[in-house]
């Protein structure tokens, strides 16, 4: 459904898309949930918080990436917190003077950006281990991703809860407003549905499949992404994915095999036979996985749910 | 006439015993071919000591016991051995069996003259019991001579005879108590000779008032024998429940009946003990109930071992309705059969031919946590939880939550409104763990 | 005889899930009837809309989630009915529908369907409606005004409160029906009602029956017998069931002292439901521990 985007082989740009879509801090990494619950009462508040976090994240990443080799390992956490706190204080000062309305809406959550998991997590996992340019783009990516997510949640909550959007009354005056969405429980509900939709559309998976840096990614041992990706591949979802998109991947693989194995004259037949064998094995594996899944589903349905089956089969 | 304290849990399904109760035991003769499986439920299989073509007589040993944990197999008719091959038995398994062609003469072997009971030494009695091939006739299949050889014979305080017969439809013991009470009491006396410090108790369920009255009368003068009345509930006839009701002692997979000083025996077993001690005869026949709405004339039969189930079904009048389920054993714990050309063994207690309205089960739904399974479990387990562990193949949790204590009595599946197959799930988990 | 053999036991009791649900629906009929009689046909429409939405939602959600359809076990009907009876009589119809959808989709189906809900779906939906649409759900709460209805009124004609509590007589009739048939027992309702009044007396220091009677007696009895006894969300062992009843009594007393009406009961029930797994962990009263 989602068109596969053609990424330039540019690691910095890749960081941007990583933060916005593939590893969106709110939808995928599930970081920063606490401020997300509180500030998303309206779209504008969400954007404001997101941009404030972006500011802090950007400069913290920049500074920490610059001095990353000078911070002794044992003192890294206090060092990070101090640096982050400096920028949070600056941000707070800016907001208090220039945007008092935002300050009133966000309240104590502005100084709390210091302990926002997104900032700490990106600083420790990325900025402290990578070059400045990449760290800056990572901050942009994560910050923008966070802002977008907050904006989406805020917009929905504002729309359903009060009938407004960006401050403008959108629903007719008789709309009572579902006040639960102005409170935290409503925020949880909206976030749950958005997370589910994000996962269902497999937006992050699409980005992974089309990245031409797949080979480079595998080499990057420091990135925690690789470990997560491996986990994702062995999950049952990966089996589903393999079933749903069998042709492009296997076709790609076969192409790769053809180009890489450059058959010499004598061994051409052997190579063909090996290819055929591999294809057969793959097909058998897929069939097996399909069968196992079906059996599991059957067992679950039997033990949990009712439906008259005329034969009353048994699994023995 | 006080009813004894019963056990916790249990169910009260419709008795359905009226069918076979009123008709007295009928003797039925076998057909042309008799099949004698060499292996039972417990112990080492017997070894065949005849070959194809041999002529055998009724009561003759055709399979010898292979060690202490084995019982011999005897022919129940006279005839010629036609084969030694694998045949299906009521569990569905194929078991190596001796096949004998009935010559219709029913000649018995010459049994040696019996020694009076007072002159027999205890080990001789035990040997006789083993040699006669006696095992638990209630379907348990436990070799009786092993039961009667506990580690501390002096610690045995009770010998309990199981007259509960709690499974619906079955009336074997009921008829036996009415027709052979003297043999029953005689058998009990043999046991009391083996265990001088024990008291004999015949525990009878309160739906068999005629048996209670008769046996009370007969044991009025016996100092060491008493009759106890049990509340009629399923599974009162289960060993642990019986011991708990009669003596109040607790048993489990870790604590056996022997450990608490109790020996538990079935009525048919005890009658056979008396018969073999008195006459040296070997075990060649048993009582089998044929019942169910699909059969014309439900009743109990005295049938020779090895007879085909088909013969019994015919003798009971044949089918009057299409049977939805044919069961060997009781309806709660018996085995469903695919075919009826299988032999009567020492473990065959009944053949049930049930119609659709007797076994109909409505659709399965999800568990609604009604906790009925908890209230009926005689072992105080949580069947729904154990079934979930079984479904997830979670052996550790299953064992930790006392899954091995399950009696497989079926009370939980019976009562479950969601019609979940709880017993089946727990059984499938127990099977690999118990072996 | 079929070729496949079944496993033992081969006998089953005649009671099944839909049977139990139907008995509960039957037991709720007196209260429903008195509600319609006292408040008019609007109540009937509200009940029909709520129940209908619940059933249709369960059917549709089952199709979307690719599960077998289970509306024939009538559990959706029970949920819808309990929700409807817990609403004030002049609730707009669409509110009932929204509540029904919430109860089935979010509280029941998303957690795994029948038997897997962590809270009573009707009470969770009731709380949801209360928080979301507070101005639309109002009714006279006599406790706030210091009034106490006469005994006859409470028995048959209580027009202050939610639909289900118009007639104490109807509620008790239905409850007796359930107890006689063995569907519920007195442990939870008894513990709930008695501890509620004990806590009220403890916290207010006053013991006059009129004063106590004004404290939600109708909705309390309704909740105690029909809602707190819900199979899926109650503890396993007898001791824990009594503790659960006491917990519910305590929570309900707290809410009612602060002026909440039936919503207080709804909140108390869902909080209690969330504590039930902890109670079960403390001991199930079986050999499984």
Structure, explained:
The complex is a heterotrimer of chains A (316), B (435) and C (289). By secondary structure, chain A is an all-alpha fold. Chain A is 68% helix and 1% strand. Chain A is built from 14 helices and 2 strands; from the N terminus they run αααααααββααααααα. Chain A has helices at 11-22, 33-39, 43-66, 76-98, 100-106, 117-125, 132-161, 184-200, 203-210, 214-219, 224-234, 236-244, 246-261, 268-304; strands at residues 164-165, 168-169. A two-stranded antiparallel ribbon of chain A has the order 1-2. In chain A, a hairpin with a 2-residue loop joins β1 (164-165) and β2. In chain A, α3 crosses α4 (76-98). Chain B has 435 residues and is of the alpha/beta class. Chain B is built from 15 helices and 17 strands. Chain B has helices spanning 18-21, 122-131, 144-147, 172-179, 181-194, 209-218, 239-247, 267-279, 309-315, 356-359, 372-376, 383-391, 395-400, 411-415, 422-434, and strands at residues 26-28, 33-37, 47-48, 55-56, 61-64, 73-74, 79-88, 94-102, 158-163, 199-205, 225-230, 262-266, 285-291, 299-304, 325-328, 335-336, 350-354. Chain B starts with 17 loop residues before the first helix and ends with a helix. Helices cover 28% and strands 20% of the residues of chain B. Among the domains of chain B are: 116-279, NADH-ubiquinone oxidoreductase 51kDa subunit (Rossmann fold, 3-Layer(aba) Sandwich), CATH 3.40.50.11540; 372-434, no CATH class. Chain C is an all-alpha fold. Chain C has a single domain (17-285), classed as Ammonium transporter fold, CATH 1.10.3430. In chain C, 64% of the residues lie in helices and 0% in strands. Chain C is built from 13 helices and no strands. Chain C has helices spanning 17-39, 41-64, 75-85, 93-108, 121-132, 142-145, 151-157, 168-180, 187-204, 209-213, 217-227, 238-257, 262-282. In chain C, α1 packs antiparallel against α2, α5 packs across α13 and α8 (168-180) packs parallel to α11 (217-227). The N and C termini of chain C lie far apart (42 Å). The model of chain C has no long low-confidence stretch (mean pLDDT 87). The chains are: A mainly alpha (316), B alpha/beta (435), C mainly alpha (289). Chains in contact: A-B, A-C, B-C. The interface between B and C is large, with 59 and 34 residues.
């Amino acid at each position: 459904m989602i068109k596969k985007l053609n990424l330039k082989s540019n690691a910095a740009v890749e960081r941007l898309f990583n933060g916005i879509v593939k590893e969106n801090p709110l939808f995928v990494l599930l970081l920063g949930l606490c401020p997300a619950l509180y500030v998303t009462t309206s779209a504008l508040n969400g954007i404001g918080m997101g941009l404030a976090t972006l500011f802090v994240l950007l400069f913290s990443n920049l500074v920490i990436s610059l001095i990353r080799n000078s911070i002794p390992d044992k003192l890294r956490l206090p060092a990070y917190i101090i640096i982050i706190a400096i920028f949070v204080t600056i941000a707070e000062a800016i907001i208090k003077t220039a945007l008092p309305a935002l300050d009133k809406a966000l309240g104590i959550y502005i100084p709390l950006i210091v302990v926002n998991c997104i900032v700490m997590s990106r600083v420790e996992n990325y900025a402290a281990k990578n070059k400045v340019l990449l760290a800056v783009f990572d901050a942009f990516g994560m910050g923008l991703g966070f802002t977008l997510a907050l904006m989406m949640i805020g917009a929905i909550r504002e729309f359903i809860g009060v009938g407004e959007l960006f401050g403008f009354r959108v629903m007719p005056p008789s709309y009572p407003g579902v006040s639960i969405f102005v409170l935290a429980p409503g925020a949880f509900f909206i976030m749950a549905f958005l997370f589910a939709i994000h996962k269902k559309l497999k937006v992050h998976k699409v980005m992974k499949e089309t990245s031409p840096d797949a080979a480079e990614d595998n080499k990057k041992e420091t990135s925690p992404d690789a470990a997560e990706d491996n986990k994702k591949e062995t999950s049952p979802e990966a089996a589903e994915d393999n079933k749903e998109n069998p042709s492009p991947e296997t076709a790609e693989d076969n192409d790769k095999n053809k180009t890489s194995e450059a058959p010499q004259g004598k061994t051409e037949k052997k190579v063909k036979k090996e290819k055929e064998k591999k294809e057969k094995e793959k097909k058998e594996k897929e069939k097996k996985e399909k069968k196992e899944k079906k059996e599991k589903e059957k067992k679950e349905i039997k033990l949990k749910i009712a439906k008259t089956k005329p034969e009353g089969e048994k699994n023995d | 006439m006080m009813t004894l304290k019963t056990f916790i849990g249990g169910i009260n399904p419709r008795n359905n015993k009226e069918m076979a109760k009123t008709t007295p035991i009928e003797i039925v003769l076998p057909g042309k071919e008799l099949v004698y499986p060499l292996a039972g439920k417990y112990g080492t299989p017997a070894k065949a000591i005849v070959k194809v073509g041999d002529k055998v007589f009724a009561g003759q040993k055709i399979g010898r016991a292979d060690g202490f944990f084995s019982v011999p197999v005897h022919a129940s008719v006279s005839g010629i051995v036609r084969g030694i091959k694998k045949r299906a038995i009521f569990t569905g398994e194929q078991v190596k069996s001796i096949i004998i062609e009935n010559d219709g003469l029913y000649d018995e072997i010459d049994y040696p003259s019996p020694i009076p009971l007072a002159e027999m030494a205890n080990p001789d009695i035990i040997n006789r019991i083993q040699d006669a091939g006696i095992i638990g006739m209630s379907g348990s299949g436990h070799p009786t001579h092993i039961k009667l050889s506990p580690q501390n014979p002096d610690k045995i305080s009770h010998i309990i005879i199981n007259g509960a017969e709690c499974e619906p439809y079955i009336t074997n013991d009921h008829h036996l108590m009415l027709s052979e009470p003297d043999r029953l009491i005689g058998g009990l006396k043999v046991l009391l000779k083996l265990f001088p410090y024990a008291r004999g108790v015949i525990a009878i369920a309160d739906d068999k008032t005629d048996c209670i009255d008769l046996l009370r009368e007969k044991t009025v003068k016996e100092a060491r024998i008493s009759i106890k009345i049990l509340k009629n509930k399923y599974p009162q006839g289960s060993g642990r429940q019986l011991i708990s009701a009669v003596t109040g002692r607790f048993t489990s997979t870790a604590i056996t009946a022997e450990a608490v000083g109790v020996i538990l025996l079935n009525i048919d077993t005890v009658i056979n003990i008396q018969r073999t001690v008195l006459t040296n005869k070997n075990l060649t026949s048993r009582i089998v109930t044929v019942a169910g709405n699909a059969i014309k004339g439900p009743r109990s039969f005295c049938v020779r071992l090895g007879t085909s189930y088909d013969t019994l079904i015919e003798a009971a009048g044949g089918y009057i309705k299409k049977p939805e389920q044919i069961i060997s054993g009781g309806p709660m714990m018996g085995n469903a059969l695919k075919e009826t050309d299988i032999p009567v063994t020492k473990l065959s207690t009944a053949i049930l031919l049930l119609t659709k309205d007797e076994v109909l089960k409505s659709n399965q739904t999800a568990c609604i946590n009604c906790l009925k399974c908890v209230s009926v479990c005689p072992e105080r387990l949580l069947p729904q939880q154990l079934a979930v562990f079984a479904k997830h193949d979670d052996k550790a949790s299953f064992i930790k939550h006392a899954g091995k204590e399950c009696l497989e009595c079926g009370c939980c599946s019976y009562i479950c409104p969601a019609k979940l197959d709880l017993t089946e799930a727990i059984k499938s988990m127990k099977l690999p763990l118990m072996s | 005889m079929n070729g496949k053999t079944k496993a033992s036991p081969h006998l089953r009791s005649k009671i099944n899930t839909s049977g139990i649900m139907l008995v509960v629906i039957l037991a709720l009929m007196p209260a429903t009837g008195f509600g319609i009689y006292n408040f008019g046909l609007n109540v009937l429409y509200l009940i029909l809309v709520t129940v209908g939405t619940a059933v249709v939602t369960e059917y549709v959600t089952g199709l979307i989630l690719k599960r077998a359809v289970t509306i024939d076990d009538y559990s959706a009907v029970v949920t819808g009915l309990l929700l409807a009876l817990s609403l004030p009589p002049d609730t707009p119809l669409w509110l009932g529908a929204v509540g029904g959808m919430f109860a089935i989709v979010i509280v029941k189906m998303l957690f795994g369907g029948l038997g897997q809900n962590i809270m009573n779906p009707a009470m969770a939906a009731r709380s949801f409606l209360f928080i979301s649409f507070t101005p639309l759900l109002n009714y006279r709460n006599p406790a706030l005004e210091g009034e106490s209805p006469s005994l006859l009124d409470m028995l048959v004609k209580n027009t202050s409160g939610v639909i289900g509590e118009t007639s104490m007589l109807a509620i008790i009739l239905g409850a007796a029906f359930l107890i006689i048939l063995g569907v519920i027992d007195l442990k939870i309702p008894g513990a709930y009602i008695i501890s509620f009044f004990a806590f009220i007396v403890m916290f207010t220091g006053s013991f006059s029956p009129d004063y106590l009677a004004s404290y939600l007696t109708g909705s309390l009895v309704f909740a105690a017998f029909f809602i707190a006894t819900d199979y899926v969300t109650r503890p396993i062992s007898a001791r824990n069931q009594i503790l659960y009843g006491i917990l519910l009594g305590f929570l309900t007393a707290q809410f009612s002292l602060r002026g909440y009406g039936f919503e207080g009961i709804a909140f108390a029930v869902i909080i209690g439901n969330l504590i039930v797994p902890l109670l079960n962990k403390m001991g199930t009263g079986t050999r499984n521990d």
